[in-house]
Design brief:
alpha+beta; 2 domains; six-stranded mixed sheet; 21% helix; 33% strand
Length: 415
């Protein structure tokens, strides 16, 4: 891989079913198949040597599998080609063609993000392949965050996270977990490695060998090629595009909120070098974890860089309420209620904000509050990306000098 990102934001936004455990997934199911365990002398030798263990002769990919409990989220009825599947995708989703082992596949992600200039990556994908010349759903894979984009090397698919990694291939219409490793930590904080293959079990490996093999998998991942995805409906970036905005604070909750605003609201405008959100939050209600409500005036501003000044070329405000659900994996934005324009504004705002209406009118509509927040968010964006940006400017107005960055103290106060 070319680089690692510090943030791990998109994992929550890109909703997909993750795989756990060592086994297979058949063409009709996203559930693990029954393990094909072989505790043999060969497995013992592999445990000692740390060799990659896939042996088609020892592994029966056509063995008994579990009944499918989950199918593709995409209706591919009537699709005769991968291209026809792509034509059904919603804007913002991503797709890529690649080969896993000797099988040509189509990967469809719920969203993409910029890995490096000119390369869009993804951390989740539904996998489709041709079964008797008919596009068929195989399985869904999900990585642990944006620092671990889906990658391939020597025909293997790598899916990783901070503390886990799995190496896959496709054989006889099954997704095979060739190798799997993860880390746990004891009470003293010492790292313990666990490793197995599709033809062996965790207990076949002593602690030192397991840890060494897991480290080897992560080293392979570092050398793998990030899969380049195409984003559906994406506008070609303007020349000289800046790094995409990523929330630089430590709170996963706000990472999800900011990413949602950036992805969804920027779609309403022509492409610019960077889109930066500015949420003026007036109230939050987390009494119901399945429907956490964030009330505010949510701005998206789009900029092009001229010298050391970000010039605003478009943008707008979306006052309303963002609904967020807490899950076992983190947080997920489920919907957004936006106040109506024109003569319906007041009635709509009172309905959406309820008891928070007065706070919205006082703070959410206050220009000084918004401008101070806007300048600080831009300053922190510039610092996080090592950009020499000193000001922002709206058309027809003087440039506004940016304050010093304060990433370590600013974001925790947003709630």
């Amino acid at each position: 891989m070319k680089k690692r990102l510090l943030g791990s934001v998109t994992a929550v936004l890109l909703a997909a079913a993750s795989l756990a455990g060592c086994g297979t997934q058949n063409a009709a199911s996203s559930q693990p198949a029954t393990e094909q365990s072989v505790s043999t002398e060969a497995a013992a030798e592999q445990a000692a040597s740390g060799q990659t263990s896939y042996d088609p002769a020892a592994f029966d990919a056509k063995g008994e599998t579990m009944k499918p409990e989950e199918n593709s989220a995409i209706d591919i009825t009537g699709c005769d080609t991968f291209t026809q599947i792509v034509e059904k995708l919603d804007d913002g989703m991503g797709y890529a063609n690649t080969t896993i082992w000797d099988t040509e596949v189509l990967l469809v992600s719920s969203g993409t993000y910029e890995w490096e200039p000119g390369t869009e990556a993804a951390i989740d994908a539904e996998i489709f392949y041709y079964n008797d010349d008919v596009p068929t759903y195989l399985a869904t894979v999900t990585a642990g965050g944006t620092a671990y984009p889906l990658s391939v090397k020597d025909g293997y698919l790598y899916v990783g996270g901070n503390h886990f990694i799995t190496k896959y291939l496709i054989d006889s219409g099954s997704l095979v977990e060739v190798e799997e490793g993860y880390y746990e930590y004891d009470e003293a904080g010492e790292e313990i490695g666990y490793y197995r293959t599709c033809n062996s079990q965790f207990e076949d490996y002593d602690e030192a060998t397991a840890k060494s093999n897991v480290e080897g998998l992560f080293n392979e991942l570092e050398e793998a090629d990030v899969i380049a995805f195409q984003t559906v409906g994406a506008v070609t970036p303007v020349e000289g595009s800046l790094p995409q905005y990523e929330y630089p604070g430590p709170e996963l909750f706000y990472s999800v909120l900011y990413q949602y605003l950036t992805d969804e609201l920027s779609k309403n405008y022509d492409a610019a070098q960077v889109s930066i959100p500015c949420p003026v939050i007036v109230a939050e209600d987390d009494s119901d974890k399945s429907d956490i409500r964030v009330y505010g005036n949510f701005w998206i501003l789009n900029y092009n860089l001229d010298g050391d000044t970000l010039e605003c070329v478009s943008g707008g405000s979306y006052p309303g309420c963002v609904h967020i659900k807490q899950t076992d994996d983190g947080y997920e934005v489920t919907s957004m209620d936006v106040v109506a324009d024109g003569s319906d504004f007041t009635e709509s705002a009172k309905k959406i904000f309820g008891d928070h209406y007065d706070a919205f009118m006082k703070d959410g509509e206050d220009e000084k509050t918004r401008d101070a927040l806007r300048a600080q968010i831009i300053a922190n964006y510039a610092a996080a990306n090592n950009l020499d940006i000193k000001a922002y400017q709206d058309e027809g107005w003087d440039p506004v000098t940016l304050p010093e960055e304060n990433i370590d103290s600013f974001y925790s106060a947003l709630n």
